[in-house]
Amino acid sequence: MPKFLIEVPHDSDRVECTRVVKVFLSTGSHFLVNADWGCKDGVHAAFMMVEVDSKAEALAIVPPAFRDHARIVGLNRYTMAEMMSRAERAAAAARAAAGDPKEGPGG
């Protein structure tokens, strides 16, 4: 199932910060009650990692009052083989764009 990072920023004002945290905690939503917060480190936002079917479904988790400022990021992992393949394709594309033929053995 796809995984998403939900980031919900809020103002750093102490009253606003307290209000937002209280809204999240009072919803009863498993996701919202278990949000992680960056406030103590000066990053005033809630963070949640969720596994749902789509970005729209991830956004629906966020209380309506905060959706306009929420950021939903689709997450993925790479294998070393995938990265090597991507690097090779990027190098080939760069050579082609520069008009350089790929050097063969001995050349």
Termini separation (Å)? 48 Å
Element order, helices and strands? EHHEEHEH
Q: Hey, roughly how much beta strand do the residues contain?
A: 15-25%
**Low-confidence blocks of residues:** none
Given the structure, what is the number of helices? 4
Strand order of the main beta sheet, please? 2-3-1-4
Instruction: Report the mean per-residue pLDDT as an integer.
Output: 91
Choose one word for the global shape. elongated
* Radius of gyration, whole Å: 21 Å
Which features characterize this protein?
single chain, 107 residues, alpha+beta, four-stranded antiparallel beta sheet, 4 helices, 40% helix, elongated
Describe the structure.
With 107 residues, this protein is α+β, with helices and mostly antiparallel strands. It has a domain at 3-75. 40% of the residues lie in helices and 20% in strands. The protein contains 4 helices and 4 strands; from the N terminus they run E-H-H-E-E-H-E-H. The chain starts with a strand and ends in a 9-residue tail after the last helix. The model has no long low-confidence stretch (mean pLDDT 91).
Write a compact overview of the structure shown.
The chain is α+β, with helices and mostly antiparallel strands and 107 residues long.
Write the topology of this structure:
Blueprint: E1 3-9, H1 14-26, H2 30-33, E2 36-37, E3 45-51, H3 55-61, E4 71-75, H4 80-98
